[in-house]
Amino acid sequence: MAESGVSADVLDSLRAVPLFSRVGETDLENIAALLIERRYPKNSIIVEEGLTGDYMYVIRSGRVKVTKASDDGREKIMDFLEAGAFFGEMALLDHAPRSASVRTLEPSVLAALSRRDFMGLLRNSPDLALSLIQELTRRLRETDEQATSVSFQRVQDRAKGLLARHRRRLLAG
User: Fold this and answer.
1) Do residues 122 and 129 lie in contact, with contact meaning Cβ atoms separated by under 8 Å?
2) Which of 70, 98, 105, 172 has the most other CB atoms within 10 Å of its CB?
3) What are 90-111's pLDDT values in tens digits?
4) pTM of whole model > 0.85?
5) Under 8 Å between Cβ of 56 and 89
6) DSSP class of 94
7) What is the per-residue DSSP string for 129-169?
């Protein structure tokens, strides 16, 4: 156990989240102390596109898929996430509807952080605020790359780019 009473594996799990990788030990322990553990069986909907959310999730174990629905009801898989990944951070910053749905692919354990608690931490920690800005900027750049890919590349080149991005993500993790 860490001196704060938070287990070392929880802190390690948080350190693996890019959003929290640059924050100090005290901030990390403060975040960890606010996490709520939630267990989901296989095929459970964690968040649903279009509904308002108030939680960010860190995957402690298991695997989920992130999807978006088209206007005609088709489902597009946006990503697959595993232990150490996180989602729902936009809900921590605004009360807009969820931009995607997330469903478990196997039994999963997630750590949830509420918007109310997170905003309190942000107000008191410039390091945490800077880390959040940096991660959201990284994701915006990735989205820009994807939009460029869809607009200007052939299907084969888009597929190569997608595989390269996933490979970089795996090597970074």
Assistant:
1) yes
2) 98
3) 888 888 899 999 999 999 999 9
4) no
5) yes
6) -
7) HHHHHHHHHHHHHHHHHHHHHHHHS-HHHHHHHHHHHHHHH
